[in-house]
Each structure stands twice: as structure tokens, then as C-alpha cells.
Design brief:
This protein is α/β, with parallel strands linked by helices. The chain contains eight helices and seven strands; from the N terminus they run E-H-E-H-H-H-H-H-E-H-E-E-E-H-E. The chain has helices at residues 23-28, 40-51, 53-68, 72-85, 89-98, 125-138, 149-154, 180-192; strands spanning 14-16, 33-37, 142-146, 161-164, 171-173, 176-178, 196-199. It has a five-stranded parallel beta sheet. A two-stranded antiparallel ribbon has the order 5-6. Helix 3 packs across helix 4 and helix 3 crosses helix 5 (89-98). It is globular, with a radius of gyration of 18 Å. The chain starts with 13 loop residues before the first strand and ends with a strand.
Length: 202
Amino acid sequence: HAIIAQFPARFGTYHEPFLGSGAVMACLAPARAQGSDSFAPLIEIFQALRTDPRRLKDWYGERLAFYHAGERAAQYAAIRARYNATPNGADFLFLCRSCYGGVVRFRRRDGHMSTPLGAHEPMPLTSFARRVDLWAERLKGADFTVMDYQLAMERARPGDLVYCDPPYWSTTGYGVPFELAEYDRLAALAKTMAGKMIVSVN
């Protein structure tokens, strides 16, 4: 809510080129929105939420059942290994809900997810299903695309709002470093883009 309080009262299409968790967009619940990210498994989750919420619930339910069918650390490790071998939205969804602290980390040397299992129990399927329904309603005006942030920003038209929350400087986002030069690139784009832009810098 603190971020949204900085937004203008009126704008056209809302754009979020670094979608991440989607929390800002879900809180805003815009009538028209374009959410994008360069990380395909993440966007696969949001595309399923938008077009087939039942599939999202099935993904989570299947992995939750597998997780409870054996020793939980070993089951979690198996899901993580499968994801690292073939990155996909279904496995990534469950890993995000069950990893330590809910913070997904990727090794710089190979881009593999390395976060261990969390101490908490994953969310029950019934609770997860209710959250899916809530988010599907709040994001019904959005479309989601795998896209570089420059291309996403260039889609903005006069009157649109672009909110950027890029990765922390010199950290590894999805196994890809976001260096200072990317902030320079972002600043240059802000000078030429058609819509209004707000940036969070942490």
C-alpha cells in the first residue's frame, strides 16, 4: 500500500516489467495491465493464474501430495532437482511456497536454485486454492509475457504508468547478475519512454 500511495490517481495501462511476486499488481488490481519478466517459469505461473486457475491448484496439489508421501527433505530435494534439470512453472510454484524463508536463491556458477527446505509446513491446498481464486479475480485485467524490461517499457503509451522494481544492484536474479550498467540503461529508458515511470531502488 505504501508503494501504491505514490502512484498517480489516474493512468491508462499499468506496466510492471520486473513482475517478481506480483504483489504490487495484485494489491493495485488494475483494470488494464501488462506484467512481464525475463524469467519464463515465473511468467508461466501467472499465465496459468490468468487463463486456467484450476491448473495452478492442480500443480500445487500434486506436488504437495508427493512432498507428504515420503521424507520431506528428500521429497523437496527431488522436486528441486527436477526443476533445476528442466525449469518449469509447476515445480517453481511449489518450491516458492516451501523453501527456507520463502526466499528463492540461485547459484551464480550454474543458475541452479539452491534454497533449502524451510522449517514451516507448506500451505494446505484448501488455503492455497482460496488464494488462487482471490488473485485470479484481482488480476483479471492483466496479461503476462516473458520479455526483457526494455521491450516491456517501450510498450507504454502516453498516460500509461510503468512501475519498476529491479533486482538489487550486483545481486543475482534468477541466476543472472543485475549490474550497475543495467541501472544506467534503465535511467536512459526512463528519459525516452512515453508513459510515467516510478522506480523502487533498494
